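[Discussion] Sanity-checking designs against the backbone

I'm trying to build intuition for which residues belong where. Below is a structure token string of 404 positions. I'd appreciate it if someone posts a full sequence so I can compare it with mine line by line.
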């Protein structure tokens, strides 16, 4: 009797952790990890920070050395999956091969959202998603006269910070009044606005882009108020779109990602999703969440791998992410909404504080900035089912442990 075969589509962090976890859970059949990049699976946070700046070698971003996959009998299939057939349990590859599977984990990630303005075909316009993107962008910024970063979300903010640390002149452009407004809101986003301004980034906030101009190579960025900004490097960091083509073609439920239950299982038996592409039911928040951060790929990948191997684990971890920009380090736990109220303990101007996003004392998310060794307390506070007095949340004389 042949052994069961596990196919994992997407050889990023989520896919690599799914393969690792399935093997550790006792899955003894073939495991195939399918991805169309030549590098072994790697983590993405260094791509906008250490690797982009050239502070660390590309290999330091690898999830495991390539020998790990050989040692654990995980086959790296370097090809692109083009079709998922859940009736016949096969995956078609661009190279013509058809792979049979008994269980499959879709960890196809997300693709950068593309600028939809004239001039995006000019040389010098970059998106950041892959390791190759990061290395190419490093060289471009190192030779740049002035870099324009379009988008002030996490990728745009981190790229702007890294470019300034590399010595480039930088202008950052975004329609919102402050960086990171969609996630952090106006009050906390203003901290990052002032941070970038203090480090010499020229800010064009509340402005959109209508055109890129140049003769073969980008030379200027035209804003929606008619202003023209010089730039010989343009980085577009305007969000990502989940890669759901395979799921769409297979008839899986797709709604802002591949819809799964709390076990990361789709409605089709044996088909799971994890990482940036998964819109998974979260028991604590009582809603589906699609989270585009490193910790989610790391932990969801592992849960999906174990479940594909036969376990029935619920994914209940709170969303978590971190960012480092200049001398500011932060960690965020939970999932806040734009209409949440913010309670702050500490000093925003000093960039040492803790912020809580809550609805009538029900804490949805918490973040610290340069206030270390508190993240476990923050997880416990966000994870509580009760309501807390906002005045106590903001009172620095009340230990966090008393709020848990």
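Best answer:
Here's mine. Compare freely.
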């Amino acid at each position: 009797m042949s052994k069961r075969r596990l196919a994992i589509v997407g050889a990023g962090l989520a896919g690599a952790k799914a393969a690792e976890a399935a093997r550790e859970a006792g899955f003894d059949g073939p495991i195939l990890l399918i991805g169309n990049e030549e590098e072994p699976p790697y983590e993405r946070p260094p791509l906008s920070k250490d690797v982009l700046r050239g502070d660390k070698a590309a290999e330091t971003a690898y999830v495991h050395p390539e020998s790990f996959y050989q040692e654990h009998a995980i086959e790296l299939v370097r090809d692109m999956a083009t079709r998922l057939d859940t009736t016949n349990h096969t995956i078609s590859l661009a190279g013509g091969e058809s792979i049979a599977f008994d269980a499959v984990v879709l960890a196809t990630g997300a693709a950068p959202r593309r600028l939809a303005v004239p001039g995006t075909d000019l040389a010098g316009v970059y998106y950041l998603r892959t390791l190759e993107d990061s290395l190419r962008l490093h060289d471009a910024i190192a030779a740049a006269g002035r870099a324009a970063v379009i988008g002030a979300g996490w990728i745009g903010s981190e790229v702007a910070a890294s470019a300034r640390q590399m010595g480039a002149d930088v202008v950052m452009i975004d329609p919102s009044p402050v960086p990171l407004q969609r996630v952090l809101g106006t009050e906390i986003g203003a901290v990052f606005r002032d941070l970038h301004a203090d480090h010499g980034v020229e800010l064009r906030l509340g402005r959109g882009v209508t055109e890129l101009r140049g003769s073969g190579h980008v030379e200027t960025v035209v804003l929606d108020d008619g202003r023209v900004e010089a730039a010989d490097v343009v980085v577009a960091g305007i969000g990502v779109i989940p890669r759901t083509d395979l799921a769409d073609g297979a008839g899986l439920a797709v709604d802002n990602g591949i819809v799964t239950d709390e076990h990361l299982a789709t409605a089709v038996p044996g088909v799971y999703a994890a990482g940036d592409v998964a819109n998974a039911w979260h028991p604590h928040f009582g809603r589906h969440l699609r989270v585009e951060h490193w910790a989610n790929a790391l932990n969801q990948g592992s849960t999906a791998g174990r479940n594909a191997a036969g376990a029935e684990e619920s994914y209940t971890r709170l969303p978590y992410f971190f960012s480092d920009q200049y001398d500011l380090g932060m960690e965020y736990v939970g999932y806040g909404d734009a209409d949440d109220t913010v309670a702050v303990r500490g000093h925003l101007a000093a960039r040492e504080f803790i912020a809580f996003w809550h609805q009538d004392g029900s804490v949805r998310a918490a973040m610290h900035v340069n206030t270390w060794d508190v993240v476990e307390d923050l997880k416990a506070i966000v994870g509580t089912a009760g309501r807390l007095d906002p005045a106590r949340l903001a009172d620095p004389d009340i230990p966090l442990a008393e709020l848990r």
